[in-house]
Amino acid sequence: MDNQNKEYDVICIGQVVQDILVTDIPEDALVSGKDTVMAGQVLLASGGDAVNEAVTLARLGDHSALLTRLDKRNVGDMIFGDLVREGVDTSLLVRPDDCRTFSTVVVVKPNGDHSFLVGPGENFTPEMSDVDLSVLRKTRAVTAGSLFALGALDQNGIEVIFEEAQKAGALTIADMNFDCAGIGPHAVKKVYPYTDYLMPSYDEAVYVTGEKDPDAIADVFLNAGVKNVVLKMGAEGCFFKSGEKRFFTDPFKIKPLDTTGCGDNFVAGFVHCLLKGMEPEACAEFACGAGALNSQGLGAHLYIRSEQHVEEFIRQAEKAALNRK
Questions:
Q1: Which of 242, 304, 296, 299 is nearest to 274 (CA)?
Q2: What are this entry's molecular-function GO terms (predicted)?
Q3: Which helix (H) or strand (E) covers residue 289, if one does?
């Protein structure tokens, strides 16, 4: 794409969290009556949708910046240090005195799925006062990670940011999360006309649209103004639809170790390819590879090493043939 000489490749706006990953916990651990349960591994890492996207983009070779709130305590300092080590630009971070970044215990199940135990936080979501709109002229793309997890920006702000980004010639990409705050399935509809690529998971999209067929889901978003819909379907790959193209991308045959952050790695992989000017089919192939590869290690963004790492995985991994039309 154009705008090769911008200061940033991607500005990632959204969620940051401290992840505490725990593996091999018995399912009855909390009701067994035992006061001590041995875990397989315990891993402390940064996480959250925007962080996962920013770190993976940096590992793929892009200049990514994180725009969000981060606290000044030990948790915030740990995450800040992690971002610096990963090469993520931290110049847009806002660290208010009253911000408390929350921690999440991620219980990784034997099949690679996970459950989240979310701790409390305070003033941890970005607000419009944190955003200097002029910075949008300095980036090639902006991601929202994720809609329904942006706090006040969900209903009053993210649509302004995306509109200004588009005016500046930047791509706008939005992931989705589950509606944990209960703001309703139509709460973020104002952002759709300013969204170049919307990338919800299948379950999130069903909640928002009320539809179950991938075509019908995509049509709801397209009719609302979204330009391109990329439906993440987990073990079934993904579905792409725009006004000009429509296709499924088959998944890779893998045995996941940990699926935490795989959707965020998918988004990062897709955006990385968009910035290289690749066609949607190639973007989707690489994105599916990034999501699948991330599942082969623990953590939301710790396994992928580079663009070459993903490309090597894609060359060697077997794909499922689901024969969808």
A1: 242
A2: kinase activity
A3: helix 280-294
* Tokens standing for residue 65: 């910046």
CATH no. of 10-28+41-315: 3.40.1190.20
Residue spans per domain, the chain: 10-28+41-315
- The amino acid present at 137, given as its one-letter code, is R
Give the separation between CA 231 and CA 217, rounded to whole angstroms. Answer: 9
pTM: 0.95
Range 150-164 average pLDDT:
97
Residues with Cβ within 8 Å of residue 308, at least 6 apart in sequence: none
Half-sphere exposure (Cβ direction) of 37: Cα atoms closer than 13 Å = 15
Given the structure tokens 């990784």, which residue do they identify? 108
CB distance 70 to 80 below 8 Å: yes
Q: Work out the average pLDDT over 10-17.
A: 96
